[in-house]
Amino acid sequence: MNSPDSARVPVNPPDTHTSSAKSYPSRPSDRRGFEIAIICALTLEADAIEALFDHHWEDDGPPFDKEPGDPNAYSTGVIGRFNVVLAHMPGMGKVHAATVASNCGKSFPSIKLALVVGICGVVPCGPAKDEIILGDVVISNGVIQYDFGRQLPERFARKDTLLEVPGRPNTEIRGALAKLEGLRHRRQLNAKIEGYLAVLQSDPELHAEYPGATKDRLFKASYRHTDDQRSCEQLGCNGELVSRSRLSTADVPTKPAIHFGLMASGDAVMKSGEDRDRIATAEGIIAFEMEGAGVWDSFPCIIIKGGCDYADSHKSKVWQRYAAATAAACAKAFLGFWIPSVTQAANVKRRCSLADRECFDQRKRLAGEPMTRGLKIEQRVIPPQTGENAATESRTHYLPLSRNKNFTGREGTIAELQKLLFTDPNGQRVALVGLGGVGKTQIALQLAHLVKKEDQADRNYSVIWMPALSMASFEQACTKMISDFGIERKGEEAPKDAFNRFLNSEKAGKWFLIMDNADDIETLYGTAEAPGGINQFIPDCDHGYILFTTRSLEVAVSVAQSNIVKLSEMNDEDAKALLMGSLIEKDQMQDTALIDKLLQELAYLPLAITQASAYMKVNEISVNEYLRILQNTDQDMVELLSCGFRDSTHYDPSQGAVATTWIVSFNQIRALHEDAATLLSITACLEPKAIPRALFPRLGSEQKLTRAIGTLCGYSFLSKREDGETFDMHSLVHLATQRWNQDDGLEKGICQMAVAHIAEAFPCDDWDEREVWRQYMPHALRLLTSVDGAHTDDRWVLGYKVSQCLLIDGRARQAVLILESVVETEKTMLAENDPPLLSSQYLLASAYASNRQTKESIKLLEHMVAIRSDLAENHPDRLASQHILARVYRLNGQIKESIKLLEHEVAVQVDLGENHPDRLASQHELASAYLSNGQMKDAIELLEHVAFRTDLAETHRIG
Question: Looking at 436-575, which runs of residues are DSSP E strands?
Fold first, then answer.
């Protein structure tokens, strides 16, 4: 039997005019060398793709590593001019696809295009009436989520607003597809597909042969397959077939045709001809598949799938392997038309054999020149020198991030950093600290390029940029840097040791080192279980200067002591300049009121502003439309703030999303400061402004709470007001934290913890406590109105306490809304005579009365009086219900009923002392009823008695 490897040689068919093997790109030095991702859901789909690899990098050495926590399985290799990574999905569907794509983006951050390749169900006839048969290939020019929406009583309403559907492909993809739809290039594409398909069909283990036209049967949409457990052959399906003109010759394999159009993506397999036609007609789609929508938000994406069935109940697996083969052939053919980046193209041109490379490097060594490995080295490299001549020589630099041409403002911050670093004798280590997204990396990058350009004799530095995100990223950068600098390693010396040794040596000359994203204290200093961190490899000498960027004040203090520059949001002028530089349609800046609103919503955060402008450009929407979406709902805002963008000034797209960059900090806090994470999560359930310290949860001790508050303030997630006892949370951080709680499945539990704590902390309705409960009220109301499903005793208690205070404050309408919810919930869980339920109903009846809802109040009170009729006549609860019912009767004009109840109440209370407040209250209420009934003499007699007997304060209003 032929092995798969032997069967796939040559991979490039003769008619595709490919160059020799030496034109393939070289093996990437790391995962950043991959620009193309291919994602397959089924093994048979991945088999077809791998069979078309021109080279497998696993054959040359160990496989590439991946980011910690990435569970994906990958294959790496070459297709044409590209290094490609193939991601093997663990299962079908959008959720699996989204997870795989997200993790792939983290491990392979340079991906510029993702191809989702495999099989699909096709619509027999496209919108242009072109015939689609099994084995044809569909290339997406857009995708809809046909099963994403709302199930209304009479119909299903698909969500199709801008934020709820995948956007259209970017301009590069749209241009490439438009080119391929042209006659000349479509013919070339078809020719390449035929050649690659022949290669796959030559491998018998792939089973990629054409099944035959007799197996391509399209039944009328209304004819249903009645048993899912049996095939059409077993069941004897014999319904009327739809004629297919391209299948006239049964024995001749039909060449697969290419169709460009919309694809429908959903989590359910489409197995209904009638539903297929209905959706296809309504949406203009030509195929159904299950993974594309999941990948769409992570990468620029094209879906390429072969038709294996007609998306009806007569599905079978007969066509799957052939359809997978046609899709794989099309994917490879498509890449032949895709233009690689400059870096990738240069990599292809430079590639030579390993032996030639080593000879070339050896000649370089003999000539005293640095090695050619590494793409970021300056072209005019001269080894660093020391002494008087050093300043006049050109320096080697390692700056993997490009200068941000849209950078604006921040002159004061840059000047302060320059002064601290280069003129202050104690400023060799400086930290720039601030909230994620506030612009630390961009300021450091601007300063790095400024220092690199300096021509003064005292400012001739080598500029070196190192990420401190993790030990792995630091080690990787050390490897690149020493290669670019031509630094010889000693024996088994690790790259990070060589980096440290060289920069500490005099021959390195003066240097300026940026340690970017030094956010994690454990990454810097290690732990008790794993001692040692990045800090031990950071050089410490008189000729070097280091700038750390960090979100953590704790890290800033540890690395720079008092040499700290705190960064806040942009001012109005700089924010407008940044937005204007990022927008395509500059005239939108003329609407100053609209621009001011947008910047206020974005909290003047540079990353949020840049992210918003990128979103507007990609989706071709105006500032007004973006602002409308942003202000629509909290969910819309969070989704917008989670939409990353790609540019050369960030490590990966996740750093282009302000909400995503905060999630990184949230996870660091959870790993290192559990108490601070708890405080952060609970605070997200409260109002973001004016949070009293007393509402923060008890964390075991005052010291723990103080440290947790300090941690969140150090990350700029909380800010302390001048009184020292009140705090504010950044409004956008507040939203992002809620999303964090939701994504981790913690939202309900966290909110219940918050309700329990606030219910205990909330004061009673004592008038002397009014300043306290007025402070607590906004936070309690937020919890009560936003926590769904948290039917706990604590919620009832909090609702009861809050309503009491609202009634005293004259806010009866709000009290009614809260108490109605409390009572409805308690009625489903408690007996009708249960004291907590009756207490809540009593307060609700009072709220109804205060809100002039007398009918509702009377109905509820009459029910309560009836329930409490089993109690003794002089029982306080029974009398209380009768008392308020009598009052509401009076307010409703039912004077006789009121007098009857009150006279009975006063008679029952005869055993109480004459000065007892309850007895006096009943007499006062009865006197009021007498007055309403015109019984002046009786009323005056009672009121004189009450006035004489009462010893309450003059300010106390009876009743």
Answer: 462-467, 511-516, 544-550, 564-567
